[in-house]
Amino acid sequence: MIVAKRKPFEEIKNLLKDYKKVLNVGCGTCVAVCLVGGEKEVDVLNAELDMARKLEDNPIELGACTVERQCDREYLAELDDKVKDYDAVLSMACGVGVQFLAERFPDIPVFPAVDTSGLAVNQAVGWYEERCRSCSSCVLGLTGGICPVTMCAKGLYNGPCGGTNNGSCEVDIDQPCAWYMIYERLQRQGRLDVIKQLHQAVEWQNQVPRTLIQPGYKKPEE
Ligand code: SF4
Ligand code: SF4
Question: In the structure, which protein residues have their CB atom closer than 6 angstroms to any atom of ligand 2?
Answer without folding.
Answer: 152-154, 156, 159-161, 163-164, 169-171, 177-179
